[in-house]
């Protein structure tokens, strides 16, 4: 009898994580004799721990297909990092119990670095407990910080959104700069790595002479140097666009966004890096400014997803199931780049032991010498990842996203206190 | 000999104002025997005052056609409100001088309320000075506050961007709410009128049960009532999305964004309404929050323009030229809605005397009784305006926008001190 599968979404969601879910479920359905029902965890791994499973077989083929163009996590995700096996053996044992109770032999975990680690541990404990679970990690993270794989699904679409938005806003500012805004600041995600900020650099190219300054989390902020760079751009182009990472920080590690200001009640005044940078420019040069904080808009923007990203997200979910059926365990399917231009890629795989707890940072050679821009090497890396458009269907002017029924599976085990 | 035309873009640019420019120039080219060269003002009306004219005949047909999908102001715009005729006769007389020097008989002014007023005055003074100028105002404003016309080009695309972004971000928050963000706050434009904020209400519909709370500038902010409404949404849906207008204000008129906080140097701490509202919710209920400020991204977002908006922007530019050729003066072509569903519209016209200095506010019956949502009447009004998609062409993953040559016309007059 074919074993069932468990699928869960982990951590911050993206505009294409459901495309991976689609790849997993459609591929399982296409192999109905070899793999049973795909159960999804409601709200990620918490659904497994609490035995709150969703029966995806209750969803129509059309609704599963619609996952491909629906952003966010259709089954719910969670921020819940399982502790180490030593500190928290109880939770890992509970997972195995739940898998046993529902005859689950495959564990597909769709997430970033932490979930790769959890996935790896599940595979290890299943062996030691004598209940075989094939654990496959399907990569996902807008932070693009997983090792080995060419890139991480979710990142390409955020990069496209930031690149396009930076170009559009720059056209706007350019046309108004004589009498109005001269400096526009856009704050983007990426607390530890500047991959997303780097995408702002794609706004400019041979046909678009756009003055973009990027503040990377990799480069400790030097105020005087930055202010001089802004002035040089305004002098040469009439305006300047600044893309600042939320993780931009001073030499001592303090975030730019953390100003230590207090409101009337003495509460810490939370702001973003963008208004801080914008006010800094105003104080120094008197330029009129505007600022935006893209926040969730960037990672939810399915309306502007990269086709490459959607294709890869789906392909990695599909490959995960195929690898499981081929007997693989404790691995992550990866994207292997075989050519930059034209972009070509194929599916590879990495042992989870090599993935867990390794963060891929931006190479130094991707940041220009002055610290405020991207190099040609970076452009060559990034450009294919934003390639192609993959628009969702629209009805009455609005994108049509699916909301699944998410029917619960009957529980078989006693309650588990988390 | 056919008279030349002058065209200028005025005030804050939009993602479709160039579509109006395209309509003006293409229609003028199609009537080459009856209308001469279209000169554009570099940086709007300032280009007329300084005799800094752009010869649009130097642009290829392909480049002019590309204006239809290029955001912002291709000739430059400006924030420059001409004073009243009494206070500033000199500037109006200078305009006429420049028009005379370049044999200009048509004045197409593409802007909002202020420019309608200027346009009207130019028509009046041309009469009194005995140099005939037909002055036509082509409407444009994301604020949607011009009277008589069904809507204003620029607004529909911003509305679509806000509606789509609100839906996408809500899907994101919904899928994470159990362990992470429960309240997402999106700040949108519209200092005086809540038209743009209202568009956030379109995120929810019969197929998408999304808990949206809107903070309108039309409704003085009541903190306790707002906090109770947020709690009710989080209790019922697990999360809540707040769309707050930058013009949201307290009973006494103070903007929510104005907190009177100071940084370490005693400078006013400029923030947005979004972080203020988000922190308020956190303080009262302890919910984890995220916030975004869309700022220029919303009005520059040509990648998500409404087809209706693009079509109308073009049609109004075209109609402006046709009306001028038919001998009209001191008028604004308008959109006349003839049916809600299916949406049908035709071109009408309004005398500038009826347009200038009249602001169209949101009708009271468009805001729900609790003050935090939109009514069915509002939905019926808004939905057609975001209808249809009109994607720009892409190359290598990025939208292809045109940058014109903008060749200057030789000056014939002495310099004018502004």
| Count of DSSP-assigned helices of chain A | 13
| Shape, per Cα inertia axes of chain A | elongated
Question: Biggest protein-protein interface?
Answer: A-B, 88 and 88 residues
Main pleated sheet of chain A: 5 strands, mixed
What is the CATH first-level class name of the largest domain in chain A? Answer: Alpha Beta
> What's the average pLDDT of chain A?
95
- In the residues of chain A, how many domains can be counted? 2
Major β-sheet strand ordering of chain A? 3-2-1-4-5
Specify the CATH architecture of the largest domain in chain A.
Answer: 3-Layer(aba) Sandwich
Multimeric state? homodimer
CATH fold-level assignment of the largest domain in chain A: Rossmann fold
Listing every helix as H and every strand as E from the N terminus to the C terminus, the arrangement of chain A reads EHEHEHHEHEHEHEHEHEHHEEHHEE
N/C terminus separation of chain A: 32 Å
DSSP, total strands of chain A: 13
Q: What would you call the structural class of chain A?
A: alpha/beta
Could you list the spans of chain A in which at least 5 consecutive residues all have pLDDT below 50? Answer: none
Organism (chains A, B): Rhodobium orientis
Site (Important for catalytic activity and substrate specificity) (chains A, B): 114
Domain Phosphofructokinase (chains A, B): 8-299
Catalytic activity (chains A, B): beta-D-fructose 6-phosphate + diphosphate = beta-D-fructose 1,6-bisphosphate + phosphate + H(+)
